[in-house]
Amino acid sequence: MYDHRSAQNREKARKNLARLMPAAQVRAHELMAIGAPVAIAAVTGLEAAAAPYIHIRRFCGVHLYCVGAGQYHADIEMEGLPVGYPFVFGTPTTEPGVSLEDAEAWAIDTIAQYMLADRQGEDRTQAEANFAHFEIDGLTFAIPRKFIERTVGLGYWTEARASFHLEKQRRAMGGQLTQEGLAKMASYERRFLDIAMVSMLLAGTPRYPRRRPRAS
Hints:
The protein is of the alpha+beta class. The protein is built from 7 helices and 6 strands. Helices cover about 45% and strands about 15% of the residues. The longest helix is centred in the N-terminal third of the chain and has 27 residues, at about 5-35.
């Protein structure tokens, strides 16, 4: 299985982006010249949720790889996304390219579309209004407002109970939340964590601990 986090693969991806960028710029100019509309479609539900944060300035690599005969994929790597969102998006696993050239063509066209969105002044960050943010141990979670509304309807916790649960999870991870620890959480544990964060937000507390540690 291809490893997107491998240092070697990420370095290759960085070079691929630099190599494909000129072709993407040409493609963006072509689309702009004919007045083509921006056509950006999410491949998965997670990508749809991450849409407000996907921006050309976050692109840092293009992973090109083959998983079998005639099954080539292109995945665009991003940086600086909130915790919980995929750091890559790309060709659907069920619709691979039949050649490396196909995969590269997909990457070029996708990069061009995001360039076009940027140049046309499409403010994708407006969608961030659909999210509230909660900070804990240096990690920022983007919580959909629809989930907050649903939690209000089903019942949320007191601030004391939410604080107790957050502290319990921090201790379980060695004193603070980590991305590695979050990845290992069972689905019900993650749901309780989300409810705790929403409850803190509803109590008017956007971070935990309440005070950031002083710089030494």
